[in-house]
Amino acid sequence: MDIGDRIKEQRLNRSWTQEKLASSLNVSRSAVSGWEVGRNYPDLETIVLISDLFEISLDKLLREDTSMVKETSKRTKRFKFYQITLIILSLLVVSYIGYNQKLRHDEHTYRANLKSHGWLMDNNDGHSDGNAYTIEQEGINYWTYIMPTGWIGFPLTENKVNVIVRDKHLVVDIKDDKNFEAIISKSNDKNVTFSASVTIDKNANFLHSNETLSSNKKHKIKRYLLQYKDNYQQMIDRGTIKRAQIISKTK
């Protein structure tokens, strides 16, 4: 006997019409009719209500109805899948909003710090859109760019603040307090015959390059770094301080 037959049996035992059962369960008469002829099944919540209404256990109500058991199992699994999916999506949305708020707060902090330390917007940079800043002190020029934070788009990118330090023909990119890049260019120094961007340590020692260097070019780079070692060290020290001022979260 399937669940439709059991519902009909219990209804007839009480001399109830399909309308009365439908009213008691807050469903339509056609729904009850569909159950009883096996056209469809009640949902999980309604099955529990039927069990309570007829005062019979769920086990007895569903016994021998393998189709209903399978359908109920499928619905349960689907419900759990949708529930887990909803939880994951909710966590992603909350994380997205929270992380975006953090980025916006950081951006506001960086811009406020720049202003308080005398940095000015670089109006000479036609591609900065008001996000590039510059300051010059003791003949050394400092430049940075603050990435604006938006609500739309994945993934959100943390604002990696770097400071480019220029002292006449020497240029150093302060990426963070441990990573520095010397930018050697013929356009900056007419006395060099090559261009290169190389990673150096805080003492201006050559570490590595993203490009493949010949032994001759590597030798020239090391000799160039050694020639201006004191200048590079001073630029790194001052640039690191400037960057720390920008990203400081304390007043």
Automatic annotation (TrEMBL):
Gene3D superfamilies from the UniProt entry: lambda repressor-like DNA-binding domains
Domain HTH cro/C1-type residues, every copy: 7-61
Keywords in alphabetical order: DNA-binding, Membrane, Transmembrane, Transmembrane helix
Highest taxon in the source lineage: Bacteria
Transmembrane segments: 81-99
InterPro entries: Cro/C1-type_HTH, Lambda_DNA-bd_dom_sf
Molecular functions (GO terms): DNA binding
Tagged with keyword Protein transport: no
Record Pfam families: HTH_3
PANTHER family per UniProt: HELIX-TURN-HELIX DOMAIN PROTEIN (PTHR46558:SF15), TRACRIPTIONAL REGULATORY PROTEIN-RELATED-RELATED (PTHR46558)
Protein's name according to its UniProt entry: XRE family transcriptional regulator
Species of provenance: Leuconostoc carnosum (strain JB16)
